[in-house]
Amino acid sequence: MATICGTDAAYTLEELEADAAGTAAELAARGLGPGDRVLLKADNSIGYVTAVLALVHLGASIVLLDHRDSPVATRDVLVRAKVKVCLVDDPADVAPAPAIRLAELAAAARPVPGGIDAAAWAALPDGLLMSSSGSTGRPKVVVKSGAVFLANLRRTAEALDYTRSDVLAPFLPFSHQYGLSIVLLAWLVRCSLVVVPYRRLDHALGLAGLRGATVLDAAPSTYRSMLNITRQRPVLRAALRRARMLCVGAAPLNHRLVAEYRAEFGKPLLDGYGSTELGNISFAVPANPVATGRPVRGVDVRVVDDDGVTVAPGEVGELLVRTPDLPAGVLDDDGELTPAPAGWFRTGDFGLVDGAGNLHVLGRKRAVHRMGYTLYPDMIELRVAEAGCCAKVVAVPDERHGSRLVAFVEDEDGHAPAYWRERMARILPPYEVPNRVVVVESFPLNRNGKPDGRRLEELASTA
Asked: What counts of helices (H) and strands (E) characterise the chain?
């Protein structure tokens, strides 16, 4: 029997659905109805899962916002999305907007058996509004229909071979594409979900192991921390040993980390590729644990050069995606919808498709100019990674050379900058060798576990 469990409570899926339907009835009694935009800003909890299903059942337009977003960012989304009411852990987070505490809402609602009806929500062209991560600039508010989001999840479940016997344990915030996908996948597949305290990895691993998690999902930085913790406390290795899949996304995956997991647990980290705009695009699976695997059914990927010409298998270029899961568009500064263009979507990512059809995502297509050459920092990062150097390269404007390159090297052993610069100089042409190398124990991360591009730019400007 499928269950939804947290640190101090567990419910059958049917019990949770009854609570969600009752919550939807309570919201309707307070004047909310189909199509109303409701902002959900709260931390992961069973109550959060209940609220998501309640809004689906009500047919409301769900506006997701990370509970750690600043008041300025929150106000921006509230205004642009024309939110009617907010469901929150703390009303102060959205003041002065009208708000209802999740705990107060749960106390007022009464269970209504009968399951969740997603038909009205699926029919909404703006069933789901999500902010992009904003790692390099102002977040976009992406608008998707409920039907498109659910269809992408059904094909995701097919690609990953989820079954009712699975127990999903996402070590991710539910307020973004990746985390929300896992929540609704558990509901669609009718399998179990473990709401782990993902910021306390020792507790989270213990709970995942106790509940018999079969699929873990996390960012690469989280898997790195898990590895460190389990080396210090071997009893926590159970969750990683027992899982049938260790899935990873949200940021580029380091080859060294993959090798360490194979050595320690005898299984690969299974990478995936997706985005807020397009949903889930491709997955590595146990039978094909190569890069980010092949695209899910119905999705096509092309690799093109700078002139838009498709390149041969194995050659690097920009990734273009054609998918039935395109968003309706994004909200402009006035809150009006700017429609997404039809056809092939330019991802802005570099990559290649190998001869077996596997997608290798190499990084962002960010061109900079230096010493008369056009360079791509992500490609430099890829080359030095092959030499065992985990680096993030940041370009700083320079009047004389066009750009000055600063490389941040993640090195737990604390080698000197000169050590890493010498290694880079062996494999890079002179015009790609960074001007400055800064050694750090770990990269600064944003709330999604991705390297924080804006913070790295700030650090590079003073390096």
From this structure: 14, 26
